[in-house]
Design goal:
Length: about 190
């Protein structure tokens, strides 16, 4: 029963690709000065020439009006049509970054930081791979990890079902394991 609403804003920032806190990939996006009132998230954003730019939202970063680009929207719609959901890779562990001392750096090829495993969920891909509480993950698929967000970034939908090499420290010794990436929210 409400009339259509319109607002004018300025692009305040053009940002690079980003990962939302739950792990979803957001392609290059725009921040705007639009004051999005409650209920206006999901609005179509048009350029001054009337061309569609993307979808407005305030739901990803509190207090920030963002414009999600068409590339992100296409990927989400494709996933919803194919699977009924947006799937994300899952290992079933929690980590925190820890600095490595000089002796450990010598054993790891110079890595300065590892991700200390603080939780392994029962029945998870991590548990099936043999990861245990106290392991310190050095790399995933050959890529070094500096923070938990870096690991999360590697768990894209494309990785689901892949067997990935994982290098870690256990008791001061380097070990190589293979973990099969599962699907978040599903337990086999």
């Amino acid at each position: 029963g409400r009339a259509p609403r319109a607002a004018v804003g300025i692009v305040a920032r053009a940002a690079d690709e980003w990962r939302a806190p739950p792990g979803g990939k957001i392609d290059r996006y725009l921040e705007t000065t639009l004051d999005l009132h409650r209920g206006l998230s999901g609005a179509l954003v048009l350029s001054a020439a009337g061309a569609p730019v993307g979808l407005a939202t305030t739901g990803l970063l509190r207090g920030t009006a963002m414009i999600l680009p068409a590339a992100t929207l296409r990927r989400v719609v494709k996933a919803l049509l194919a699977h009924g959901e947006v799937r994300r890779g899952y290992l079933g562990l929690a980590t925190i970054p820890v600095p490595l001392d000089a002796a450990l750096r010598g054993r790891t090829g110079g890595e300065e930081v590892a991700l200390l495993v603080t939780k392994v969920e029962p029945g998870s891909p991590a548990e099936r791979a043999g990861i245990v509480l106290g392991d310190a993950i050095l790399s995933f698929g050959g890529e070094t990890l500096q923070d938990p967000g870096a690991l999360l970034a590697f768990l894209s939908e494309e990785r689901i079902g892949d067997s990935v090499a994982l290098r870690l420290l256990r008791g001061g010794e380097v070990r190589d394991l293979t973990v099969t990436v599962g699907t978040r929210g599903r337990r086999p």
